[in-house]
Write a structure and sequence with these properties.
- By secondary structure, the chain is mostly helical.
- It folds into 2 domains: 38-135 and 266-297, Alpha-catenin/vinculin-like (Four Helix Bundle (Hemerythrin (Met), subunit A), Up-down Bundle); 139-263.
- Helices cover 83% and strands 0% of the residues.
- It has 10 helices and no strands.
- It has helices at 7-33, 36-69, 73-100, 107-134, 138-147, 149-168, 174-200, 204-229, 238-263, 265-297.
- Helix 3 (73-100) runs antiparallel to helix 4, helix 4 (107-134) packs antiparallel against helix 10 (265-297) and helix 7 runs antiparallel to helix 8 (204-229).
- The protein is rod-shaped, with a radius of gyration of 35 Å.
- The mean pLDDT is 87.
C-alpha cells in the first residue's frame, strides 16, 4: 500500500530545506565566499579592536590610580569619571570584537574572549570599589584638619598658658602653676603628634593603640588644667579660660580627625589599586595578548604573513 504525503509533510520538508539552505549559505559566506584579501582585512580589524581594547584598559587603570593619588575632591572625581569612561570604551570595543568573530572561530579564540570578559568583569568590580573610596579623600581631609585648625588650637592653648605662667611668676604659686602649665602643654603636644601616624595607619589594631595613648594624655591635660583653675590667684583668669577653650576646640577637632582617619578611604583605595586592581588588570592584558596571538596565527589560504612573536 502506498502512503501519499500530506500537506503537513510538505510543509515540514520545505521548512527543513529552507533551514539547510540558510545554513549552507552562511557556511559558504564565511568559509568560501570571502577571498583572502577580505579575510586578511577582517583579521586586521579584529587585531585592531584587541589593541583598542588594551589601550582603553590601560587608560582606565591609569585614571583610577590618578583618582587615588589626587589631592583634591575635584581632581579625584575628574579622574574617576575618566576611568569610568575608559572602562566603557573597553566594553564597547569588546562588543564590536565579539560581533566580528566569525562562525568558524576556533575554540581557543572563543575561550580567550570569554576569559577576558570574566576577568574584565572582575576588574570593573574592583575598579568601582577603588573609585568610590578614592573620591571621599577622608585621610587627606583628616590631615588637613590635623595640620590646620587642630594645630592652630594647640598653638592658641600654648600661648594662653605661657601668659598664665608669666603673670604668676611673682606669686607664691609660681612654681605650681609653671609645672601644671608645662605638663598640660606636653600632654597636648603628645596627642597632636599621634594624629599623623593614626591617619596614615592601615591597621585598626594599631589605631586602637594610638587612641589609647591619646586618651591617657587627654586625662593628663584635663587634670593639669583643673589643677590650674584651683590656684586661688587664677580664679576666673581669662588666659586660663582661653587655654581651656582652645583645648576643648582641639578635642572636638581631634574627634573629627579620628573619625575621618577610621574611614581610611585613601589608604584603602591605594592598597586595593596597587594590589588587587593591578593584578587583575595584568590578567586582562594577558588575555588580550593571547587572543591577539591566536587571531594572527589563524591561516588564510594563499596568504603567508610571517610568524607573529609576542613582544611580551
Amino acid at each position: 500500500m502506498t502512503i501519499k504525503p500530506g500537506i503537513k509533510d510538505f510543509v515540514w520538508m520545505a521548512a527543513g530545506a529552507a533551514v539547510l539552505l540558510v545554513g549552507t549559505l552562511l557556511f559558504l559566506r564565511f568559509h568560501r565566499s570571502q577571498n583572502p584579501a577580505e579575510q586578511l582585512a577582517l583579521k586586521a580589524e579584529r587585531v585592531d579592536l584587541v589593541n583598542r581594547t588594551n589601550l582603553a584598559l590601560t587608560s582606565a587603570a591609569e585614571a583610577e590610580k590618578s583618582s587615588v593619588l589626587a589631592i583634591t575632591d575635584e581632581d579625584s572625581r575628574t579622574y574617576a569619571d575618566q576611568a569610568r569612561a575608559a572602562a566603557a570604551q573597553v566594553q564597547q570595543a569588546y562588543k564590536e570584537l565579539t560581533g566580528l568573530m566569525p562562525s568558524g572561530a576556533t575554540p581557543e579564540e572563543k575561550r580567550l574572549l570569554d576569559q577576558f570578559a570574566a576577568d574584565f568583569a572582575q576588574f570593573q568590580r574592583i575598579d568601582a570599589q577603588v573609585l568610590d573610596l578614592a573620591v571621599k579623600n577622608t585621610n587627606l581631609k583628616a590631615f588637613s584638619l590635623a595640620f590646620g585648625p587642630a594645630a592652630e588650637a594647640i598653638k592658641t592653648m600654648d600661648a594662653a598658658l605661657s601668659r598664665v605662667v608669666t603673670k604668676t611668676a611673682p606669686m607664691a604659686e609660681a612654681r605650681q602653676a609653671a609645672v601644671l602649665a608645662f605638663e598640660a602643654k606636653c600632654a597636648a603636644l603628645r596627642i597632636q603628634a599621634l594624629l599623623p601616624p593614626h591617619i596614615a595607619e592601615e591597621s585598626d589594631q594599631k589605631m586602637d593603640e594610638f587612641e589609647a595613648q591619646m586618651t591617657k594624655q587627654d586625662d593628663e591635660v584635663r587634670k593639669d588644667l583643673s589643677g590650674l583653675s584651683a590656684v586661688p590667684a587664677l580664679a576666673a583668669d581669662p588666659d586660663l579660660a582661653a587655654a581651656a577653650a582652645a583645648y576643648d576646640q582641639f578635642s572636638k577637632l581631634r574627634t573629627q580627625v579620628l573619625a575621618l582617619s577610621r574611614e581610611n578611604t585613601n589608604v584603602r583605595s591605594l592598597a586595593i589599586s596597587l594590589n588587587q586592581s593591578r593584578k587583575i588588570m595584568f590578567q586582562c592584558q594577558d588575555d588580550l595578548s593571547a587572543l591577539q596571538r591566536v587571531i594572527l596565527a589563524q591561516p588564510i589560504a594563499g596568504v603567508d604573513y610571517g610568524r607573529y612573536d609576542s613582544p611580551r
